[in-house]
Design a protein that fits this description.
This protein is α+β, with helices and mostly antiparallel strands. It has two domains: 1-144, Thiol Ester Dehydrase, Chain A (Roll); 151-305, Hotdog Thioesterase (Thiol Ester Dehydrase, Chain A), CATH 3.10.129.10. It is built from six helices and 14 strands. It has helices at residues 24-41, 46-52, 126-132, 159-164, 188-207, 289-296; strands at residues 4-10, 54-65, 74-84, 89-97, 103-115, 121-122, 168-174, 180-181, 185-186, 217-228, 237-247, 251-260, 266-278, 283-285. The strands form two sheets. Strands 1, 2, 3, 4, 5, 6, 7, 10, 11, 12, 13 and 14 form a twelve-stranded antiparallel sheet that branches. It has a two-stranded antiparallel sheet with strand order 8-9.
Length: 305
């Protein structure tokens, strides 16, 4: 395999959350940085982006979180291209701790060239496809799905569908300018950020939890799948509807559907496998039977990306 280094930095204190480790949205942001560096390796750097008016944008993400990273941790990302054609690139990245060499997270994504003005798709050039051969990689076992299936996504649900299914409102707000990238489109990181910010509301509505008053237990995501269906812009009002897909003795799987309030159209769908976490021992703990019984009441058939 021809892994190339695509990103190197460290975990900043302001990138962490109430669990004391790097928040999921910053994994997404660093993967976006890695995609930009990969684009440069394929001959589509800043000058070519300015000439064509198009850049590589992720269409979806599958992310596995293998080891939590806490403030100050030195990290780097390596990766490459699994497959390439005129429509899209299939990419694989992995984040490693610089000192231990342990893989902290893996990212599997499809990416396509998209216009900076309207996000219309642009064909990937033969030159880029040829250069992809030099950075060809295979997905290792630790980068493959474990708790989620990478089956084709469902047809886009509507806001009306979410309301009929009784999904919970866990976020609603305006797309702010500092959430956006070129063309005033919502940054990839912010899709994940919206879901992450919604979790305290989700737990409050399903379990009566207030995380601000419990410093010993929490939760952590093991795996995420995101499908980015549209490109919200500055000023759009978005609403997130969430529900429980499955609960077991050790994990629970949430599904999240993000909509444009004005149009009712779905802009993203996601699902995540999570665990309960002992914040003192930094270890996963079984879901207490009473909690499991309470969560099972919120399972909604038919959820998924």
């Amino acid at each position: 395999m021809s892994f190339v280094e695509l990103y190197r930095s460290s975990v900043q204190t302001w990138e962490t959350d109430g669990m004391g480790h790097m928040n999921v949205q910053f994994y997404s942001e660093k993967a976006t940085n890695a995609l930009a560096a990969l684009s440069l390796h394929l001959g589509h750097g800043r000058n070519e982006i300015q000439r064509t008016g198009a850049r590589l944008v992720a269409e979806d993400h599958h992310i596995r979180f293998l080891r939590e990273q806490r403030p100050g941790a030195p990290i780097y990302i390596r990766g490459g291209v699994v497959e390439a054609d005129a429509n899209r690139l299939t990419c694989y990245f992995e984040m490693l701790n610089t000192v231990s060499g342990d893989v902290a997270a893996t990212f599997f994504a499809h990416a396509s060239l998209r216009s900076d003005t309207d996000r219309a798709q642009v064909p990937i050039s033969d030159a880029m496809i040829a250069k992809a051969e030099a950075v060809k990689v295979e997905v290792p076992p630790h980068g493959s799905p474990r708790g989620l299936d990478l089956t084709p996504p469902r047809a886009a649900p509507s806001l009306g569908d979410a309301e009929e299914m009784g999904l919970l409102t866990t976020f609603q707000g305006e797309v702010m300018r500092d959430w956006c990238v070129t063309g005033d489109f919502l940054a990839t990181r912010r899709f994940m950020g919206i879901v992450s910010d919604s979790i305290p509301n989700l737990l409050a509505q399903t379990r009566g939890d207030d995380r601000s008053k419990d410093s010993t237990t929490g939760g952590a995501a093991l795996e995420y799948r995101f499908v980015y269906r549209d490109a919200p812009k500055v000023g759009d009002i978005l609403t997130l509807r969430s529900g429980l897909k499955e609960v077991t003795d050790k994990t629970y799987t949430w599904a999240h559907w993000l909509f444009d309030v004005e149009t009712g159209q779905c802009v993203a769908t996601a699902e995540a496998v999570a665990i309960a976490l002992d914040l003192v021992a930094r270890k996963a703990i079984p879901i207490p039977p009473d909690m499991k019984a309470g969560l099972e009441k919120f399972v909604v058939p038919g959820l998924g990306v």
